[in-house]
Amino acid sequence: MALGRFAWAVLAYNLAVVLWGAYVRVSFSGDGCGAHWPFCNGQVIPHGMASAMAIEFTHRLMTSFDCAGAIILCAWAFLAFPRRHPARLFSVLAILFLLVEALLGAGLVLLRYVARDQSAGRAVYLSAHLTNTMLLLAVLTIAAWTIRNNQERIAWRGISRQSWWMASVVILVSITGAIAALGDTLFPASSLAMGMQRDFSNSSSLLLRLRLIHPVIAIGGAAYVVWGAVAFLRKAEEDGRRAAGRVLTLVLIQLAAGAVNLTLLAPVWMQLIHLLLADLVWIGVVLMILESARTRPAHFEAAELCRSTFERS
């Protein structure tokens, strides 16, 4: 279905926007357009752009195309599906989360939580920004999944409490990862020993000391997600088993990437790969959870009921 392919394309494009936003941070280009929003240095299309301005302006331009894609997805879903279809609801939610995303981005610029700012407020704001980004990716994933599988409703009651906890754990791990990445950017270390020494120093910045939390939470969170995915794998049907298998594979790759990132002292390219894998883990977990909320077509359920009744008789 063309709409389904477009929905997955919008989700993939959002991953590109997220990665470029991270590059804005690691390249210290967040103030490239000055304290101006939505225009860059007060201009719609700035002239004579330096490197930082070009990077920041590109991110804003990508966000504009992102909003256009979400609006097209929403309009298309309303044309293709009847009232109360989940694709309609979640395409609307995608637009709302994109608006919040844009406002949070504006706040980062206007409050000057950019470039080399080391305030605790930046860490808090960054955490809120990341949480909204993950919710945006989740609703886009749900919209694409419902379109691809022609799901007219989602059986939310079929989702276990463990699944909700799993999603919460992934968000928590991602938030601590964002704070750790900010610390890596603002306080680069010349060696692993020096970095660890600074992390444990009472005189170090709060961002550096918070960086210690991420590896511990990441390992614990990965263990919990693996446990949940294995449990899901044992009782799920074919599509659910594939979804759980993807989650297990992505989590193991992400743990390896985290170790490489730490060993190499968080170079820019590795930070971006680590972030991409984190987003893919999140999307994989959302898809796995959705498989437990899959509903069967009415005619299929009627056939199953007749079969079971016949077998009992």
Keywords:
313 residues; mainly alpha; flat; disordered C terminus
Determine the mean pLDDT: 90
Q: Give the SSE order as H and E letters.
A: HHHHHHHHHHH
Distance between the termini: 41 Å
Q: Write down the domain tally.
A: 2
Number of helices: 11
Rg, nearest Å: 22 Å
Helix content: over 70%
**Number of E-state strands:** 0
Low-pLDDT windows of residues: 298-311
β-sheet strand percentage: under 5%
Short description:
Helix content is 76%, strand content 0%.
List the helices and strands and how they pair.
Layout: H1 2-26, H2 51-80, H3 86-110, H4 120-148, H5 161-186, H6 192-200, H7 206-210, H8 213-235, H9 238-263, H10 268-291, H11 298-312
Helix pairs in contact: 1-2, 1-4, 1-10, 2-3, 3-4, 4-5, 4-10, 5-8, 5-10, 8-9, 9-10
Q: Could you describe the 3D structure shown?
A:
- The protein has 313 residues and is mainly alpha-helical.
- The chain folds into two domains: 1-154, no CATH class; 155-295.
- 76% of the residues lie in helices and 0% in strands.
- It has eleven helices and no strands.
- Helix 3 packs antiparallel against helix 4 (120-148).
- The radius of gyration is 22 Å and the shape is flat.
- The two termini are 41 Å apart.
